[in-house]
Amino acid sequence: MSPQATNASVVLPWVVAGIALLALVAFIVGQRFGGRPTAATASAPNAAVGGSVRAPDISAMSPQERADRLFQRVMTYVSSGQSDSVMFFAPMAIQSFEALAPLDAHQRYDLGLLGLVSSDAVLSRAQADTILATQPTHLLGLILAMRSAGLQGDAVARAEFAARLSAALVSERAKGLPEYVDHGPDIDAAMREAAGRSPSP
């Protein structure tokens, strides 16, 4: 196993706990992709062929569909603990999101999550900082900042962002932003993290 993959195997368990795996996977499968079929699900589903899984043809997808599909694939590998596959596909997913620029807060959050699961806390924190520069109380920006600080071992910064997240929760959620609805389970999990409780649902 390469040094990169070895590092991922050490970091991934912490990241999986921090992202509240069950809530995140439920979001990916049940909310974001369940009601919005992409070109992949319509024309090239992940069908088993000869005992193997046939990957969808992403060349026919729109840039957003391609980014969404790669994001889903990476998070699925995270959920099954396949760190080698995470490290292989995460750069592709990251490039797909970067190609969508300019990014909105929702896209930056997804890009930041890809940074977290691929051990790139700098990328994740950069997305958090960009979100918070224009929206200082945005929940997704605060969640990314809190988790990035945790990944970097900065307990002081993590506690600061956790406090800001807790303070902003009620007023921000009252805004009913689409990204808050889509990421509802992950926001709930992050609040448990901020309070120092188990991330499990």
Compact overview of the structure:
This protein has helices at 3-19, 21-32, 39-43, 63-79, 83-98, 105-117, 121-134, 139-151, 155-173, 178-182, 184-194; strands spanning 48-49, 52-53. It is mainly α. The two termini are 33 Å apart.
Could you characterize what this model shows?
The chain has a single domain, classed as Serine Threonine Protein Phosphatase 5, Tetratricopeptide repeat. Strands 1-2 form a two-stranded antiparallel sheet. The protein has 201 residues and is mostly helical. The longest helix has 19 residues, at 155-173. The chain contains eleven helices and two strands; from the N terminus they run αααββαααααααα. It starts with a helix and ends in a 7-residue tail after the last helix.
Number of domains: 1
Strand content: under 5%
Rg over alpha carbons: 17 Å
- Report low-confidence residues grouped into runs of 5 or more: 19-23, 25-31, 33-53
What is the overall silhouette? globular
Helix content range of the residues, please? over 70%
The CATH class, by name, is: Mainly Alpha
Quickly count the helices: 11
Widest beta sheet: strand line-up? 1-2
Mean pLDDT: 79
State the end-to-end distance. Answer: 33 Å
Q: What is the H/E string?
A: HHHEEHHHHHHHH
Keywords:
single chain; 201 residues; mainly alpha; Serine Threonine Protein Phosphatase 5, Tetratricopeptide repeat; two-stranded antiparallel ribbon; 11 helices; 2 strands; 2% strand; globular
